[in-house]
Amino acid sequence: MFGRMTVAAVLVCAATVAHAGDKPLYQPVPAWVKPAPPIDASKLGDSDPILLVMDQQQRFEDGQVWIYADMAMRIASPQVLTQAGTVPLPWNPGKGDLVVHRIEILRGAERIDALAGGKRVTVLQREQQLERATLNGMLTATLPVEGLRVGDVLRVSFSVTQKDAALHGHVQSVAPLLSAPMRLHFGRVRLLWPKAMDLRWRAYSKLPDLKPVTTPDGYNELLIDLPIAKPADLPGDAPLRFRPLPLLDATDYADWADLSRDMAPLYRTEGAIEPDGPIAAEVARIAAATADPRQRAAMALETVQDKVRYLFKGMDNGDYVPQSPAQTWSARYGDCKAKTLLLLAMLRALGVEAEAVVVNTELGDLIPQRLPMPGAFNHVLVRATIAGESLWLDGTGGGSRREDLGDVPPFRHALPLREAGSGLIEMPMRPNARPITDAEVELDGRAGVLFPMPYTVRVAVRGAQAEVLRVVAAQAGKDELDQGIDAIVGSFLNEPETVERSFKYDEASATAVVTAAGITYPDWSKENGRYRLALDSAVSSIGFSPDRARPAWREIPVSSGGYADTRVRTRIRLPGDGVGFDTEGDRTLPATLAGVALQRSVTLKDGWLTLDDRSVTGIAEVLPADIPATRAQVAQARGRLLKAIAPKETPPLFLQVEVARRSKALDPILAVYARQIAQHPDKAESFGDRAWFLDRIYDRKGAIADLTKAIALEPTVERYLWRSRLYSALKDDAHAMTDARAALEIDPGSASAVGRVAALLAEQGKRDEALAMLAERADQGGDEKNNYVSSQATLLSDGGRVDEGLALLDTMIAASPGKADLLNSRCWLKATGNVALDTALKDCSKAIELAESPASILDSRGLVYFRLGRMGDALADFDAALEQVPDMAASLYMRGVIRKRAGTAGGDADLAAARMIAPRIDEDYARYGIKP
């Protein structure tokens, strides 16, 4: 950390007195202070603001700043009482004093002195930011206010003073400017300085035209009433320089060059390295290793980064003054100032031109708007010049290597500290030599496009994130580390199941490397007759919808966000050596899109599809004039996202299963599930995951076996109902009912369990009992009422009471017209009951218009056409349904029936497929009077 001036340190950001001490003083309010208006606590009510008074007055003189603060808070609730019951007053005893003027309670007309009887604040002797590697020398005085109660007003007046020898008689300060909608009874910021002092001040919010006035004793006085007007709204994607700081800066530095000259002597390195000392030995080691100045710079930076730990030391005038290189090397710790001075000394001894530069790591391009003062910056680093190229070397960073020397930190502006002075210089933004996150993903899709794919992943992370991962890996337990790795892998794959994980820190490349293996579930979807898989990892993440409708916003550029740099290389081993596979969408990308730098390469060769994407944000903006064209460019790019396309002749899943079984292509997938179970035999999810896959490949007995183990570990409604359905498919109705009832016992309110039990009761010939159960639940109302009534209608119709079932649906549709699922149910009942076929067509056709995915409705209408004898129309609807859902057993079955009756090819294959998917489908359609 460099010397920092923050809004959080509202009342201690700058102050002065010559006699600093670590014990608070108790003195009257200084004579130069203008008192705030008195408070009549007896007239306050709930409509009054909680913060009644916020008065801050600052006096600048003889290189010192005295900040006086007067605050009054209404204790409006128990929560406010808890927060305000202990008064904290922080200050830096190395720079000045804490002077307590008043701590009192106002209760009606009564004034209670909280310091009466010799009460004094308690000084806490501890570093409050030690967990952030910070020794700042700050102390905090606290006072628990005895007797404070809801309804009181707490009033605190105190001063903090500061005089910093490192500023050589200059002054600087920051005052917070509270803005509306915050309410105050009285608020003020007051600056006071001698007429002979050239004090400059600047506010970054819009204020009235303010001018200092001269006081009777010859001081300049500036007054600002609080709260100031609410800052103008800004779009969320506006660059930082357009965002007003809620601050008032004040300083007597003339310009940036004046500040540069004043601070430059702090980074002189003459005599900083003892000729026979350990730093000289390190310099000699580097010099002997190489004569290449770039390699020398890389080795010196690596030494400072890796051999000296970070610790901010703001004590003993350390806010701006770095400790000596000898002390830094001996202690093996230092902050950015200490590391910069050590690196400067080493580089200069190695013949590399270098200088210290100060930056702000948070404000970026807002810095040029601020007044020149040390508090405008919070970090210092080295700018080296080699072969005419600027190299920005940060000793507090980590993992920088030779290839990274050309990287530019995203700080935008820097102030070189030079004896001759300097203005601000720009730090040009460009992508780093190496991505911050570099992922390599390999998928084995040889089994087929509709199966899970075994995967391996390697993710290399650099910079600060690598250091975080390194610490986590060293300190966390195995479970916590595994969860962290899973989170990283999950950002690159769809629902991965991971069975191998490892982490290591690679010293040579200074990267944290995560590797993992398992299976993932690529989301292939059928569009326009072919299976497609979205591959894009760059354009899909770019959102560009800037709002510049307001006249005041029309000249504001669009930021692409903070700096982020990710490369993802995905390799997919395709089925059938990739024959017939292709891609659609953009195989190349523009150099920049919406301010994001992009790179892409795509190859499809030797059975492998490879995509290499890199995207970098935070290095460019979109100018206002370019927004319309950029919006269109992004929309076009998002409409051409890269996708893999499977061959036209790719068979549906049920056909792929047979081929994969014969070729043993499913063995690698099953091996991953087996490893998952071996690693976690006590987790129901391990068995449930494999049961899902076995069910998907129609190994129902295997799925039942895994579900039985999962249920033994963790019984749930879903698992019991799942196993019940599998038992039904195997014609084991007794076990199916046992599981259905077990699910209902776990959750008597489960509509799925109720419907399952009712359906099984009906199949057992207990239709009236099933209908009574459904009717009872429907009568109770609730969100599931329609489902219960719909199930009633189906059971009535299947039992030959079609009219009663339709009457129930008519009532539901009348109450909720325009619902596609209800219209489809009515169409289906009419088709299976072979009644009212003309209106059935209308119901299905309207439902198709309303539905987003009408495959099941097309199947219903196909059955209506079949009943009407319109076989061509029926086949068209069944084909259309299967185009959307290729493994829809009902449409396969009916298409097989039609083909068999017509004597055309494919009938037997369709029926066989339907029976594999739904083994009891013949029984279902026999109830409707339909047989092949």
What does this 3D model show about the protein?
The protein is of the alpha+beta class. The protein is built from 26 helices and 38 strands. The longest helix is centred in the N-terminal third of the chain and has 15 residues. It starts with 24 loop residues before the first strand and ends in a 5-residue tail after the last helix.
Concise description?
The protein is an alpha+beta fold and 932 residues long. It folds into six domains: 7-252, Immunoglobulin-like (Sandwich), CATH 2.60.40.3140; 259-426, C8orf32 fold (Roll), CATH 3.10.620.30; 453-520, Alpha-Beta Plaits (2-Layer Sandwich); 649-713, no CATH class; 715-817, Alpha Horseshoe (Serine Threonine Protein Phosphatase 5, Tetratricopeptide repeat), CATH 1.25.40.10; 819-932, Serine Threonine Protein Phosphatase 5, Tetratricopeptide repeat, CATH 1.25.40.
Would you tell me which CATH topology of the largest domain applies? Immunoglobulin-like
The first-level CATH class of the largest domain is given as Mainly Beta
Total domain count: 6
Task: Kindly report the average pLDDT value.
Answer: 91
Radius of gyration: 38 Å
Keywords: Repeat, Signal, TPR repeat
Pfam families: DUF3857, TPR_8, Transglut_core
InterPro entries: DUF3857 (IPR024618), Papain-like_cys_pep_sf (IPR038765), TPR-like_helical_dom_sf (IPR011990), TPR_rpt (IPR019734), Transglutaminase-like (IPR002931), Ycf3 (IPR050498)
